[in-house]
Specification:
344 residues; alpha/beta; four-stranded antiparallel beta sheet; 29% helix; globular
């Protein structure tokens, strides 16, 4: 059954401070005669100077959404089949090769996950750090040395001059992640997409990296899309949240609204699985039962219903649209969780 598009943002409700608008985005992958819709009718805005978090389990469509914004989906097998992406009023999907090349790294930068593998092992830090600036005509490599040193200093790498001559294997995971952030900031982008920027880093370094990102975006008045599965990170660093499941946004709103009054059972499940200081001593975390769905063979109705403790007959038959709860708060669910969980 062909999925109906989710609710789109009415033209009259687009705010003047909107930097990025994604509307009804659909990205598919085709292989061996099967079609997998990895991003299915996703709509959201990113406002100037704000941090928007995209949250969900692995396979929920977070990274594919980010890659679609920059048109980095490999074709074949991937293809953006529907929707629009507007950056500061410009149609990203209509850009030619040169225009999209200038957008990447210039106006929109992406910090990829896995710092251990995201850098070229045979090129020095200085060479890789200067590459975006050379590509975007910010100067030649010799004249950019001072800028590279300043970038490494901004991301708090000690002895930045000598680090320019280092190779990735000579740096720790945290140092490599800082270099990746410096590369992202090299051309003063207006939007930074941070895809799981603390993956494979220990907890202490994670906190340092996230504080650094928040400080740098605030200092540069840049917007950020923070992709993560960690709601604890989101609570501290994001102004607004998109919760994704099976390629769809199932709840979106301000961080305050969603943490105070979550309205989707999946969001409730994510929150219940987070350790909390106010839990009774010896209390157990409550996991979300079952497994994430197979995107090539989604169940009929709401894709979360096989794992949902509140599912009813309508959930098993009909796909819920994204509907407004209040203000900026939206949900895609047939169940009123305030009735089944009065404390919500």
């Amino acid at each position: 059954m062909l999925a109906e598009p989710l609710a789109q943002i009415p033209e009259s409700e687009v705010r003047p401070d909107t930097l990025l608008r994604v509307n009804n985005l659909r990205t598919c992958f085709r292989q061996d005669g099967k079609t997998v819709t990895a991003v299915d009718g996703v709509s959201f805005d990113v406002r100037k100077g704000e941090t928007l978090a995209i949250v969900g389990e692995s396979g929920s469509g977070k990274s594919v959404t980010a890659m679609s914004i920059l048109r980095l989906i490999p074709s074949p097998p991937g293809e953006i089949t529907d929707g629009e992406i507007l950056f500061d009023g410009r149609d990203v999907l209509a850009m030619n090769d040169e225009e999209i090349r200038q957008l990447r790294g210039g106006d929109i930068a992406m910090i990829f996950q896995e710092p251990m593998t995201s850098m070229n092992p045979v090129l020095t830090v200085g060479r890789q750090l200067s590459e975006p600036m050379v590509t975007h005509g910010k100067g030649d490599r010799k004249s950019l040395k001072a800028r590279c040193v300043e970038l490494l200093r901004q991301v708090r790498i000690p002895d930045p001059e000598s680090r320019l001559q280092a190779y990735p294997h000579q740096l720790s995971g945290g140092m490599r992640q800082r270099v990746m952030i410096a590369m992202g900031l090299a051309c003063d982008p207006r939007l930074i997409i941070a895809d799981e920027p603390t993956t494979a880093l220990d907890v202490t370094v994670q906190a340092q990296i996230l504080e650094l990102l928040k400080d740098l975006t605030r200092r540069n008045n840049a917007s950020m899309i923070l992709i993560t599965h960690d709601l604890g990170v989101v609570a501290r660093y994001a102004e607004r949240i998109n919760v994704m499941y099976a390629g769809r946004v199932v709840e979106q709103g301000t961080a305050r609204e969603i943490f105070k009054s979550p309205r989707h059972p999946y969001t409730l499940g994510l929150m219940a699985s987070i350790p909390r200081l106010d839990q009774p001593k010896g209390g157990r975390l409550i996991p979300i039962t079952g497994q994430p769905p197979d995107l090539a063979n989604l169940p009929k109705g709401c894709p979360f219903h096989p794992r949902c403790p509140y599912a009813k007959d309508q959930c098993r038959q009909d796909r819920p649209p994204l509907t407004q709860v209040s203000g900026d708060h939206w949900k895609a669910c047939w169940v009123d969780v305030t009735e089944v969980q009065p404390h919500v």
